[in-house]
Amino acid sequence: MDVDTKCSNTSSFSECFEESFAPLPVVIIPSLLALGTALVVVLIFVSLRRNNLRRWRTMAHFTNGQQRSSEGSPSVSSQRDQAALSPWEIPEDCTIEGLEFLQPGHYGSICKGVLRRRDGASSSVVVKSFRDGASRQETAEFAELLLFHATVCKHQNVVQMLFCQTKRLPMQLLLDACTPGNLLHHLWSLRNEGCQQSNPSALGEQLGFSEVSVFLVAKQVAAGLDYLMSEHRLVHGDVAARNVLIGPGLSARVSGLGVAFEGRRTGSAVRRRAAEVPLKWQAPERIMMRLSIDRSDVWSYGILLYELITLGSPPYPELEPLAVLPKLQACYRMKRPKNCGAPL
Question: Where is the Protein kinase domain (predicted)?
Answer without folding.
Answer: 96-344
